[in-house]
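Can anyone check this?
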Amino acid sequence: MRAPAKPLRIALGALIIKERSGFTDEETVEQIRENPYLQYFIGLSEYTDDYPFDPSMMVHFRKRLSGDILNGINELTIGNDKNNGDPQDNILDVDNDKIEDTEDKNKGKLILDATCAPSDIRYPTDLSLLNEAREKLELIIDVLHNPLKVKEKKPRTYRGKARVDYLKLAKKRKKTHKEIRKSKGKQ
């Protein structure tokens, strides 16, 4: 019994990578194995350290995708079809294989290193964490004290002074170690 055929996206993607990069068949498979971007390009749903296929399969990919088929795919890609841009009406004869529109399984973001991290992340300092904790604690005190307003006096928190002390240091450009230590103690 023969192994099942590889999907068209893997075959075409591998051939595109090989031609664009000028790799040998073995180098192409090795580059695909090492590079998550190339694995995503050929349609793998997740990164894997295994070889996606044997380098000898590249020969079969070249036989399977003849020049006529590649020209047909190229026309579809460029949008040179005569049916008002509807690729469903174009038919390619790919050795009795049907090209089906399947849902794209590759969705979401792929962040591999800090050079492509989102820029909207705030990096909290010790002082800003203390300030946030103090503000949330004040809210908890307010919520818990609401039912007891008539019976008991609210505990002193000096929230105004703490906020002024925090803002005074937070707005400074250059903060000394001594000022930071004092402000942490006040928070």
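Reply from J.R.: I decoded it. The CA atoms of residues 91 and 99 lie 9 Å apart.
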